[in-house]
Amino acid sequence: MDRRAAKQILIVDDDTGSRDALTNVLQDEGFTVAAVGSGDAALNYLRSSPPPQLIVLDLMMPGMDGWDFWHNRKRDPQLAKIPVIAVSAAGKLVEAAESFRKPLDYEEFLRAVEKYVRPVRPRHRGET
Fold first, then answer.
1. Band of the pLDDT at 90, cuts 50, 70, 90?
2. Which residues make Cβ contacts (< 8 Å) with residue 47, sequence separation at least 6?
3. Are 36 and 79 in contact (CB under 8 A)?
4. Helix axes 16-28, 106-113, angle to 10 degrees
């Protein structure tokens, strides 16, 4: 499998605005992103696609919330290896690699993302 063809980051967030904002910020910084709107959709994606290098997970979602997704993910040894950054307006996932509260400080969030995955192309800060 060509690892470069895999999506580097999977965003799991039921709020379209948050999901789109995260996608845009990460893509603008050179990351390859896939995004889904639920825990169920995330599990389906993970089971049918090359694994991402990182999962950005909203905790407060209808249906399968972030905590339920976390427990389902942990039962699969392949999926359990993927680091997770939890992002939520309420609640915390103590076991996550990193946890952030919404609204995000995007600079701090990007520094955390870069601990786990590198952009496909160099970041463009400072360009006009």
1. confident
2. none
3. no
4. 60
pLDDT tens by residue, 25-61: 999 999 999 999 999 999 999 999 999 999 999 999 9
Enter the pTM of the model: 0.88
Distance CA 84, CA 70 (A): 9
| Among 95, 98, 104, 106, residue whose Cα is nearest residue 28 | 106
Tokens 């995955």 appear where?
117
User: Which amino acid appears at position 39 of this protein?
Assistant: G
* Fold observed for domain 3-113: Rossmann fold (3.40.50)
d(CA 75, CA 90): 25
